[in-house]
Fold this protein.
Amino acid sequence: MAEFITLTNRPKIELCTDSVNPIVPILPVLSDSSIRICSSESSDPEWIPTPRTSSRKLNSSQPITSTPRKPRNKSLRADDRRLRKKEQNKTAATRYRIKKKVELDILLDEEAALEQRNLQLQMQHDELANEVRYLKKLMREIFNNRKRR
């Protein structure tokens, strides 16, 4: 049983109800023709309609159906999907933990470097403070020596 589209001269679209799963292609509708979708023998056995996608919306009154497919075992498919999602979640969690460890290592290294820099700056501060005290002491001595003379 082949599914086909018959073009007639009437300006409307009809869907045949004798077909269980008709192919509903999205075709531009010309004003001088109509599209009738049916499942029956065709006069031209080599011609098979191909569905095209379009950005225009279909009327909500038109049923959207797909080509007949083999029945699938939904529980196996759902189990496979669940297992795949579980694996994806595991790998994502592992990547996240590794990323956080790397970030923590970087922060710890930065903390150690900043502590080292802080110690250097404290030592430099102490040296400069000692130098300032020494210079003040020298200035007092010079000033006191000038007064005595």
